[in-house]
């Protein structure tokens, strides 16, 4: 739609100056041109009425304090509500919820299995043998009762302080 008024009289005059299409008599062509002119005038009138109604609606909204931003928020909220009420959304939500529950159960099982396997590994003879060798290697390198590189004992027990729980301030 344009806001530029159309001069229907000039348009009709230009149309009547053209030749008559094949299959129409001069009177039929004139009747169609007249009808076209009336329809174009109605369109012009309707555009003017619509513009006046839009202006009036804008004034009412302004008086009510409705801003374009508020309208956008309301439209968005209504649209989101409509989406949530749709069957497709409900089915998708249900499917994703089930998938999440199944994934959670699988991950829980995997975590339990890994913990159990690590416990089994730690209790195995091979791991205990490896742990013993690392311990003896450490004592050979560091020496029994030796201090760490900072000049401090390796543990509170070596420092003669007892257990770490014995050193609580309260």
TrEMBL record:
It comes from the Eukaryota. Residues 1-36, 138-170 are annotated as: Disordered. The keyword Coiled coil applies. Keywords: Coiled coil. InterPro entries: TPD52 (IPR007327). Coiled coil: none annotated. GO terms for cellular component: cytoplasm. This is TPD52 like 2. It comes from Latimeria chalumnae (Coelacanth). The lineage of its organism: Eukaryota, Metazoa, Chordata, Craniata, Vertebrata. The gene is TPD52L2.
